[in-house]
Each structure stands twice: as C-alpha cells, then as structure tokens.
Amino acid sequence: TQKVVIVGGVGGGATVAAQIRRNDKDSEVIIFDKGNHISFSNCGMPYYIGGTVEERDNLLIPTDKFMEKYDVDVRVNSEVIAIDRNQKLIQYSTASGIKEETYDKLILSPGASANAPNIEGINEKRTFTLHTIPDMDQIHSFIKEKKPKTAAIVGAGFIGMEMVENLHALGLDCTVIDRSKQVTKIIEKDMASIVEDHLKEKNVKLILDDGLASFSNDGRELLLTSGKTVQADMTILAIGIKPNTKLAIDASLKLGETGAIHVNEFMQTTDPDIYALGDAVETMDQITKTTRHVALAWPAHRQAFIIASHLDGEIIAYSGTLGSAILKIFDLTVGATGHTSTSLKRLGYTFKEATLSTYSYARYYPGSDKLWLKVLFDEKSGAIYGAHVVGFAGADKRLAVLATAIKAKLTVADLPELELAYAPPYSSSKDPINILGYKASAALER
Ligand code: FAD
C-alpha cells in the first residue's frame, strides 16, 4: 500500500482516483482541488447555459458520494501551492491556513486556465471565460438577471462555437470575432467555409481576420484592430488556454517544447514519484512522434488508466495522442483526427489530400444530408496523416472510422476494403469512406 496524493479532481484527477480503486483497495488516496467541485462535466457547461441540459446538478457528482464510492479523501477549496520533492510533501492553502500532506506518489492533474488578457476598457462583469463551474454560474446568472440581447464571442474554436450555438438558442444576437481567416482551425479553410455559411444561415455575424483590441462604453463596445466596432451586452472570451505549470516549474520538473509538463510514456515527470496528466502535459503525437499539447477529455482518461496501472505494477505505455475532436455547431457536426496541412507543413511532411462531397446515406431515403470528408496521406505509402469531416447525420461515424484506421495503421488503399454495413437509412452500398479511399488510392504514386 502507498499514499497517493492527487492535485486536481476533475477530468484527469477524479478519473485516476477511480482507476486506482479498480485493483487497489488499500492505498490511501487523497484528492486536492482548489475549487468547490470535483469530477464535474466541463464539456456539458455550454449546454447548461443554453438550456439543453436543464439540471445543473446533472453536471456535478456530489463530493460525498464520490468519496464513499471510491473510498477517497477529497479536500475541496484546497489549493496545492508547493511541492517539496526531498521531503515528499505538498503544501496546500485552505480557508483555515496553510497545511502540509506527505505522499509516496504524487499525481498532477491541474488542467489548464482560460486565457483572459487584461484588455483595455474591459468590464469584468460583462466579459466572461468558461472553464469552471463558477464561470458557468456567472454566465448563467448574468443572462437571467441582465437579460442581454447581444453577445460577442471572441475566438472561433471549440468553446467559442459551442457558446454561439447556446447563446443563440437563448435568443441573443451573436457576433463571432476571430483573428484568423477561418473558424474551427481543426479543419481546413475549404471545409471551414461550410461552417461559416451555416453560421450565417443562422444569422450569426462573423468577423474574421480581425482581433479584439480594446473595449469602450463600460465594456459594451468592442474595438477591433481593423477599426471596426461591435456592440455587445456581453462578451465571451474563448481565445485559448494555457497549461497550469506553476507547481511543476517551482518544483524544477521539466517542461516540454510546447510549454506543458514533460512526461515519459508512463506519464512520469522527470521525478519518477511524480506523475502528470491531462491538459497540463504534453505527449507524443501518435503519427509524427513529435511533442504535442492536446487539451481534450480522451487523453486525460486514457492517461489516468496508464498511471493507475503503473502504480499497480502493470507497465502499459501511453501510445500518444491523435487529437481526435468533434463538435456540434448548430445542425452541423465538425470533426478531425490527426493533422491538418498546416501542422504537416510545419513539421516538414509532404502529403496529398483527397476530398469528397457526398451524402450521408442513400439520397432517396428521407433525411439524407450533405457530408464532406477529407483525408491527408503520404503519396507513396498511403499512410493516413489526418482526416476531417463536416456534415449532419453520420458525420461522427465517419470520423470514428477514420480515427480507427489511423490507429490500426491502415493506408488509404485499405479504405475501399472496409466492409461497412449498409442499408438505406445508414449508408450507401459503397460507404463514403470507401469512395474517399478509392479517390485517395488513385492519387498514390505507382
Ligand atoms: P481539469 O478537468 O480542468 O481539472 C483540473 C482541476 O485542477 C480543476 O478543478 C482545478 O481547480 C484544479 N487545480 C488546478 N490547480 C490546482 C492546485 N494547485 N491545487 C488544487 N487544485 C488545482 N474535451 C473534450 O474532449 N470534448 C469536449 O466536448 C470538451 N468540452 C469542453 C468544454 C468546456 C467548456 C471546457 C472548459 C473543456 C472542455 N473539454 C472538452 C476539455 C476537457 O474538459 C479537458 O481536457 C479535461 O477536463 C482535462 O482534465 P484535467 O484533469 O487535465 O483538467
């Protein structure tokens, strides 16, 4: 038995505690979280704001239930402020002062923080980020009490796009602002334009290639770098995150090239008694074997399993991250796995691409809708480097098949051979994945 201390009790931290208890009923496990809640569903927060998830409690697991179920000591409102690696203890700060706790093994899952620059003229009461339950509650009560009519969403990534949909559902007139030339950079510009058209169809105003410079009029007017102005009763800043690395830096643990915590394939930091996982770490990219910082729930959960196994003497290596991601933008599904041409070019890869604009299933069957697919691949070996999907019904299925194909090291020449089940409500006798494979195979060097 050993004493395991976990810093952070949500995506990675709560999962690793639960995983430890799979086989190990005896070790002492203590979770510290600086917030008031553990094991909450961050991913559900936009949908509570928009009303799709009606009950706030459905996003939360009561701490006492978690403690009882997993026999874990959970200390909320307790921020770990320092690690003493020589004495193997941590210091944590609570309302009743600074305390200490020793450990045999320490696990860091402190996540990331939303970027929130102190922009000139900002009014904190009407400008929000969304990363924690208190952030969600603030947005929710602002909408309820102040009844805003207009919203600006700065940043057209995951959280920005999910917030547009949910604020729009509440009847707010939304403007999205992003400094890049396209929305959703997990896919490429040609496919992002489909998303942009869809946003416009929903009467969302879109300002691209332009950034927020400052606020005026008590935070109600956004001044953009181009000189344009946008009026908004509330603003969501969804302009990225940065990994929480202060504890690791102060303890002289190595950071990686991306600025996140460096770990080996067993998720150990440069101190073998200290593991780290989730949004705070960088891991290896499964395809290019270069380092990559991916802040998503799947890696955190898989890494939790790897750590719990390692503590239990079972040596399983984390095989790296693909960055498979999916999101809903109004009626559209947008997803990607692996790389975009931007990241491949940055890494010096040469590659080809095949694209397909088709239908999700038999056109004559009611509800059949448009589907766009793209695959990036090596022109000699046919190895798949990345795949992108945009569509309606069945888009998520095609993304899952392509992510599985990459993991299984299938090439584009294998895609026509995938015998994917067909009946008119689901597919066509040649599935769109098969057709994409035929197109890509035809472009292979002979
Ligand atoms: P977190 O889950 O953020 O947990 C970190 C915890 O550590 C926090 O509770 C924090 O309070 C605590 N902490 C930090 N420092 C300290 C300290 N010094 N002492 C004590 N406690 C500390 N991912 C997806 O794959 N799909 C999605 O649809 C999706 N949607 C999302 C929507 C939103 C709005 C957000 C914010 C995230 C979303 N994510 C999504 C990302 C996903 O939630 C994260 O990748 C995952 O939660 C990472 O787990 P983590 O343990 O690294 O960090």
UniProtKB/TrEMBL annotation:
Keywords: FAD, Flavoprotein, Oxidoreductase, Redox-active center
Residue intervals of the Pyridine nucleotide-disulphide oxidoreductase dimerisation domain: 327-428
Presence of keyword Oxidoreductase: yes
Family: Belongs to the class-III pyridine nucleotide-disulfide oxidoreductase family.
Cofactor(s) needed for function: FAD
Entries under InterPro entries matching the protein: FAD-bd_OxRdtase, FAD/NAD-bd_sf, FAD/NAD-binding_dom, FAD/NAD-linked_Rdtase_dimer_sf, Pyr_nucl-diS_OxRdtase_dimer
Domain (FAD/NAD(P)-binding) ranges: 3-289
Gene Ontology molecular function: any one: oxidoreductase activity
Protein name: CoA-disulfide reductase
SUPFAM superfamilies, per the entry: FAD/NAD(P)-binding domain, FAD/NAD-linked reductases, dimerisation (C-terminal) domain
Coiled coil: none
Listed Gene3D superfamilies: FAD/NAD(P)-binding domain
Cited PANTHER family: NAD(P)H SULFUR OXIDOREDUCTASE (COA-DEPENDENT) (PTHR43429:SF1), PYRIDINE NUCLEOTIDE-DISULFIDE OXIDOREDUCTASE DOMAIN-CONTAINING (PTHR43429)
Top-level division of the source organism's lineage: Bacteria
